[in-house]
Amino acid sequence: MKLHKHLTCLILIAGVWASIQHKARAQDANLAQTNIQYMYDRNAPVLVDNRVAMGTQEATIFLRVEARGEEQNGSPAIRYEIRSDYQKGNIVSNENLRPEQLIKQEDNVYFYRFTVPIENEARYVFVYVQQNVEGTNTEYRFDISLETDTSFPLTDLLTMRSEEDIPIFKNYIEQDDSFRLVSVYQTTPQAFIYHYAHDFLPNPPPMAVRSTEAQQNLSIDSLFSVPLNEPLTFENTGLYFVQTDTTSLSGISFRISDKYFPRFVTAQELIEPLRYISTSEEMDMIEESAEAKEALDKYWLKITRSQERAKGVIRDYYRQVTEANRLFTTYKEGWKTGQGMVFVLYGVPDQVFRENEREVWVYDADRDLIDLSFSFVKVKNIYTDSHYNLVPDEDYKKFWFRNIDLWRKGRKVLQ
Fold first, then answer.
1. pLDDT tens track of the chain, all 415 residues?
2. How far apart are CA 38 and CA 55, in angstroms?
3. In 356-396, where do the E strands start and end?
4. What residues contact 256, with CB distance under 8 A and at least 6 apart?
5. What is the rounded distance in angstroms from the CA atom of residue 299 to the CA atom of residue 285?
6. Residue 179: inside a domain, yes or no?
7. Whether 235 and 316 share a structural domain
8. Any bridge partners for residue 81, and if so which?
9. Does the pTM of the predicted model rise above 0.85?
10. Rounded CA separation 159/255 (Å)
11. Are residues 284 and 397 both part of a single domain?
């Protein structure tokens, strides 16, 4: 009995000591120095998406956690920190997700719902998911930004599945797919929707002055109201912006896409992303052709000079476009954004560092014989709280066109 009590005491002490050490490490961690490139890697062991509904005293956070790779033994261990910034210290709270906060499991995908208090220091929620990788427990961090200086007021509106209280974690919904608009904290019976059929321009090359199109006023194609918490289906593609109060600046946006998105299947869709690796003369030739499919075939054969090489380049290039659409679509298609453009042309970064409103992507030297880094700055955008502008720099000319040449010759190697 004494031995049992002694062992129990040792176990309790060890547990307390581990907790103290864990908190000490958390306090010392400078999150800006942590490589989080796995967020953009389709083969990462863990994929996490989030949705936030902002109330007056608290925020409700929904998580979609996809645990991949090795077989899961139960739901993954997840904790979260509330912090004021990415620097050392300033941890408002540190909590573990509890079993009752798991609202559904679909195979290896887990859905969670939990609330966090809104305080002056609560600007970020950092979610840590533990996953066993090759016999070692590894912790992966995913960032959630609450209201910041570069965001319009966040809303409690969410797009949800038509028959379940689980959000739609993509920023696009297929034509004629059923969904609901839900106000988590309000009792407002309806929402007002602005539809824009606008065709947004792709991001300019990083040597050019950045496009300001996203900040310009768009022409509204239609304005209508819909009931909240009722199944909806939309037929017209484009951008939709939703508000419960049209006198405020808060709202959510989503795109209605065709059923194949994020893939492109029509000739016209396949032509547009070519502008990143083509001359203006080549684009004019393709776009002015009476037969788009034939013009596309001629284009690829001309630049690769081999039918076999053309097949490989077409497969790799449009795989990148599809993944950019999946990762970066917000108010416009993902491949058109600054991050989407760099992702299409260079692939998954080797290193990603994020600090407050800035993100840096690093591509190691063994890729293209030179270390590359791209900086993105978060800017205010009424349609999304995650709009990043690529910071332009004339020095990008040194390697930008060389990389395009590798694509055109079928010699580009992606991770």
1. 433 333 334 333 334 334 434 443 444 568 999 999 999 998 999 999 999 999 989 999 999 999 986 555 678 999 999 998 888 667 888 999 999 999 999 999 999 999 999 887 888 999 999 988 777 889 999 999 997 666 788 899 999 999 999 999 999 999 999 999 999 998 889 999 999 999 999 999 998 765 544 445 789 999 999 999 999 999 999 999 999 999 988 999 999 999 999 999 999 999 999 999 999 999 999 999 999 999 999 999 999 999 999 999 999 999 999 999 999 999 999 999 999 999 999 999 999 999 988 999 999 876 555 679 999 999 989 999 889 999 999 999 888 999 999 999 999 988 6
2. 31
3. 358-363, 372-378, 388-390
4. 172, 173, 174, 175, 234, 235, 236, 237, 238, 240
5. 9
6. yes
7. no
8. 94, 126
9. yes
10. 11
11. yes
Q: Are residues 384 and 273 in the same domain?
A: yes
Beta-bridge partner residues of 65? 48, 110
Count of other CB atoms within 10 angstroms of residue 137: 9
Count how many Cα atoms sit within 13 Å of the Cα of residue 385 in the half-sphere of its side chain: 22
| Residue 152 within any structural domain of the chain | no
What is the total count of domains within the chain?
3
Asked if 277 and 402 sit in the same domain, the reply is yes
- Any idea what DSSP says for residue 22? H
- Dihedral angle, C-alpha 265, 267, 271, 273, nearest 10 °: -10
Q: Which residue range(s) make up the domain with 54?
A: 31-145
The Cα 172–Cα 263 span in angstroms is: 12
Find where tokens 């950019």 sit. 324
Q: CA angle 155-157-158, nearest 5°?
A: 130
Q: Is residue 128 part of a domain?
A: yes
Does residue 24 lie within any of the structural domains? no
Domain boundary among the residues 188, 222, 257 is at 257
Cα–chain center distance at 411: 28
